[in-house]
Amino acid sequence: MESCAARRGATHLAFGDFPRPTAAHFARDSGSCRIRTVVFWDLANVSFCVLASGSSGNAALLGTDQARILIDAGLSMKELSRRLGRIGEELERLDAILITHEHADHVAGLPVLARNQKVRARIYLTRLTAPAIDWGEAQPCLETFQAGAQFRIGDINVTSFSVPHDAVDPVAFCFEMRGVRIGVATDLGYIPASIKYHLRRTDLLLLESNHDLDMLKVGPYPWAIKQRVMSRVGHLSNLGMSDYLIEDLDAATDRLVLGHLSEHNNHPEIVRLVATQALEERGLRTHLSIASQREASEVFRF
Length: 302
Ligand SMILES: [Zn+2]
Ligand SMILES: [Zn+2]
What we know:
Helix content is 24%, strand content 24%.
């Protein structure tokens, strides 16, 4: 428990920094100088931050001291750079950019990033997604993979898996490094068994909780769009999220981050209430966060 508290207390650090023991962590015990608590040394040096989440732009950063991966590039390069800067990071330090699918809220900044000489990150996306993106003048160096493939970036093992969503070849990811597992699954109409399988034993899970069904039904969208959002290749509702928490969320998941909230058809406090009730029903003490469109989340450290 001490180590968890220590992790969460370290939010003032930059993204890639990890707390190191100081004199305060050593104490005299019965007159002899002994280490009383070494709560920080068990950290795996893994950081994760949701830079933006929602239909106006998605991006998240996963880092170890050997690799930094941007997951989706749905913000403009300027805004991405600004949000990275706020956690002590910069575009030039990225090793890889992973793309889940070609919708604008996940790739809007990608062609500009691909053209920028200072950005050395390689772009990973599925073979079918690559030609679905308008690259403009850019001739990017792409690392294409088949949905379902596993690969390694630095010391991070990446597993991709298909999700039900109305894009050409949409995927979600699970990352494993140094004994830490992080799942990122947004833009999915529902959660089939295959996805439940991939999201087992995650220490942190970023999961979609897109809309409140009642708000969507009476909301401003045209009926055709409402049908698309509600369909099995649309977006996960609060109810879909709640069902997953009640029936399938792994008790080992310490951090649950809910994201891709609809601006018009949802509210963060509704999502928090629904998720809290589901977690209470399960008797789980999972730490809950709601990712925002407007600002980056805290930096989660493991
Ligand atoms: Zn999206
Ligand atoms: Zn999408």
